[in-house]
Each structure stands twice: as C-alpha cells, then as structure tokens.
Design a protein that fits this description.
The complex is a heterodimer of chains A (about 140) and B (about 80). Chain A has helices at about 25-40, 60-75, 115-130, and strands at about 45-50, 55-60, 85-90, 95-100, 105-110. With about 140 residues, chain A is α+β, with helices and mostly antiparallel strands. Chain A has a five-stranded antiparallel sheet with strand order 2-1-5-4-3, with helices on both faces. In chain A, helix 1 runs antiparallel to helix 3 (about 115-130). The longest helix of chain A is centred in the middle third of the chain and has 16 residues, at about 60-75. Chain A is globular. The termini of chain A are far apart. Chain B has two domains: about 10-40; about 40-75, no CATH class. Chain B is elongated, with a radius of gyration of 25 Å. Chain B is an alpha+beta fold and about 80 residues long. The chains are: A alpha+beta (about 140), B alpha+beta (about 80). The interface between A and B is medium-sized, with 41 and 29 residues.
Chain lengths: ~140, ~80
C-alpha cells in the first residue's frame, strides 16, 4: 500500500532525499532535541518524528505534536504536486519551522523573528546526524 | 569678498533636525509593519519556494495548523 502524504503514517511517504537506514532510538532523538534547544535560544518547543510518523522526541505532549505535524504537512503538500521539504510560518504569536530530511521530520516553534536560515541549518544537521546513527550533535559529541 | 557662506538660520537647523527624526521614525515604522506581516512559506527540494497568502484557503489552513503547534509549544520557559 502506498501511503499518501496526507495520512499520518505517510507523513514521510514522499521523501525524495533517502530514508534513514537505522532505527532511531528515542534516547538519541531526545538528545538531539535537547541539543537543538540548546543551540536556539528562541526555541519554545519542538519534536522529532520518525519515518513512520511516530514521535521520537517532543518537548511536551508528544501525541499533539505528532497529530499537528502530520496535519501541517498534509496541508502543505496540497499546495502542489511535489512534497514540501520545509515549512516556515510566521504569525504574531510565534513562528513554526518544519523540515523533512533524511527520512525524519523536525518541527519547532520559536519566538517571532527567529533567524530562519540558521534554524533550518541546525535542524537539517541534527536530522542528518540522527539518520546516520549519531545522537544529533554531529562532531560536537566528540 | 568670498569667505565662508552664511550659516543657516537656527530655526532652519532645528526644522531640518526634527524632520530628519520624523523621516527616520516613519521608515522604522514602515519596516516594522512589513516585518510583522504574517506569512506562510513552503520550500521544495528543488529549491523552489512559494508564499501562501493568508486570505487563501490553503494559507488559512496553514495558519490554523501553525496556531495549533504554537499553542502546544506554549510560552518560552523563563531563563
């Protein structure tokens, strides 16, 4: 069965940048989220989701993060024929950054006027490292 | 004759300074108004990006979904 991008389990079904080869442990994802929080002082909360849409780590209420992340990508994917890679939404109340990379999803909420390119860079490097079997900290872990 | 040109009248200096400050303030407010506009931007793997207008159906749904995420995240913990 082909999972559509609109379904929760299919949140990553249309990934084009390769799937992660190894199963990511919750502990590694928790560490990666903590590292992301440490690097981004504007960050209010976030979550990292696995290839099956399961929440691997969340700052709070993981089930809500899972549902809302899936809903966000489902809506975003309706904008065109291709799956969305990054979503950036700025509102008066805060900003949402979501990224699909290496078969994983990172989604965070920040204060207004967070530095988007830096945040996406950090999110991408954390996901890349997690997908490679690391703890999300990359070379900093050494 | 020649010599230094006449210095501007003091009230002219004051007026120029005040209107300079007013221009700065207006420019600041204009930049702030633009920067505070909400937006929803989608990026694709091939480098494309698209803005979704807040008054479009899709844009509206994106803002609702973002609002739910912002609500889940809550306020920033005190340092």
């Amino acid at each position: 069965m082909r999972l559509g991008p609109g379904s929760r389990a299919g949140i990553l079904a249309e990934m084009s940048d390769g799937e992660t080869s190894a199963a990511i442990s919750g502990e590694a994802a928790e560490g990666a989220l903590a590292y992301l929080t440490e690097m981004s002082p504007d960050l209010r909360g976030g979550a990292i989701l696995g290839s099956d849409g399961v929440v691997l780590a969340a700052s709070d209420r993981p089930e809500r993060w899972g549902e809302d992340a899936a809903a966000l990508f489902a809506i975003a994917d309706r904008a065109g024929p291709d799956p969305v890679e990054q979503v950036h939404i700025a509102t008066e109340q805060g900003e949402v950054f979501a990224l699909r990379h290496a078969g994983l999803v990172a989604i965070v909420v920040t204060e207004r006027f967070a530095l988007a390119s830096l945040l996406f860079f950090d999110m991408r490097s954390v996901l890349r490292d997690l997908a490679a079997g690391g703890d999300g900290r990359g070379s900093d872990a050494a | 004759m020649g010599g230094d040109p006449m210095p501007p009248k003091p009230h002219r200096v004051l007026l120029d300074r005040v209107s300079g400050y007013a221009d700065e303030a207006a420019a600041y407010m204009r930049r702030r108004r633009v920067a505070r506009q909400p937006f929803a931007r989608l990026y694709y793997a091939d480098g494309r990006a698209s803005d979704q207008a807040a008054d479009s159906v899709l844009g509206g749904e994106l803002f609702v979904a973002a609002g739910r995420l912002i609500e889940v995240a809550g306020k920033r913990p005190k340092q």
